[in-house]
Specification:
The protein has helices at 3-26, 93-104, 148-154, 184-188; strands spanning 55-60, 68-71, 77-78, 86-87, 113-119, 127-132, 138-141, 162-173, 176-181, 204-209. The protein is of the alpha+beta class and 212 residues long. The protein is elongated and about 65 Å long.
Length: 212
């Protein structure tokens, strides 16, 4: 590899690191507010909708030869044994089952279909994302009653460079993006359960880096 290419590669890595640092700084807890005590464990009712990457099982009552399973494609569509390119993403399993029944009605008399979701990925608005100094930064499918502690277990906790008590939660509420302070050090290192809270679909947790 030439010296010029090595130099460009290093600058690219440095630029990416600086960009992430600026993002974490911009969303730092200095401009965030505390979540009210009575809101820490308030929950939002929601119905899971199918997303790209989900594994689906289609069961057709009395027509086992039509039953099948597969994965929703990146374009959000799903193919069964009789019907191609069914729009699946953004629909509940019940809504998708009714769509398949309608499509199968051209070939089978009064089809009864059930759709079972076996592998969950979900649409972005129903995922919770963790970025910054998590051990395994990634998107996690939201599940009802999911808490901040559950999420941190899912991503393997924080790195040794994390400043957990300077981390924030970014949440979209009624079209407004709000930023809340998190006390991850208190929760994970000191076992302070008062620092825990319920999460909501679409939440983003940004774990800051310690500068010392």
């Amino acid at each position: 590899m030439s010296a010029t290419l090595v130099s460009i590669t290093r600058w690219g890595v440095l630029a990416g690191t600086v960009g992430l640092s600026l993002l974490l700084s911009a969303c730092g807890s200095s401009g965030a507010r505390e979540i009210a005590t009575d809101e820490r464990f308030s929950e939002q009712n929601y119905n899971y909708v199918v997303g790209p990457g989900d594994t689906l099982e289609v069961f057709v009552w009395g027509n086992e030869e039509l039953s099948s399973q597969g994965v929703v494609r990146p374009d959000g569509k799903f193919t069964t044994r009789l019907v191609e390119d069914l729009e699946a993403s953004g629909k509940t399993s019940t809504e998708l089952a009714r769509d398949i029944e309608k499509a199968y009605g051209q070939y089978v008399k009064h089809p009864v279909v059930s759709v079972i979701v076996n592998g969950f990925v979900g649409v972005p608005t129903q995922q919770v994302r963790v970025v910054g100094e998590a051990s395994q930064p990634r998107s996690v499918p939201f599940r009802r009653h999911m808490t901040l502690l559950d999420l941190m277990i899912d991503v393997g906790g924080m790195t040794e460079y994390a400043d957990g008590n300077d981390s924030v939660l970014v949440r979209n509420e009624n079209g407004t993006q709000n930023t809340y302070k998190l006390r991850l050090d208190d929760l994970l290192k000191d076992g302070d359960i008062s620092a825990n809270l319920h999460l909501m679909p679409g939440d983003i947790v940004i774990i800051s880096e310690s500068w010392f």
